[in-house]
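Quick one:
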Amino acid sequence: MKVTVRVHAYPDGTVALFHGSLCLARYQADGRLIETGRALPARSGLTLGSNVPLVDHRPTVRDSISAHG
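Output:
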């Protein structure tokens, strides 16, 4: 799976990683993770700073929609 993330570098040397509008992590200028105490979305059950990957390995279910009225 590939995703695009944005890296924001701030004037104070801190860095933040974003996937869309979701901030995945923030780092201090020396590379240490900034703990926010906020949890990621409830379906993953992870917290920021966890060493568990942020990838959900469950299969994707796609509903088919009929064009017939």
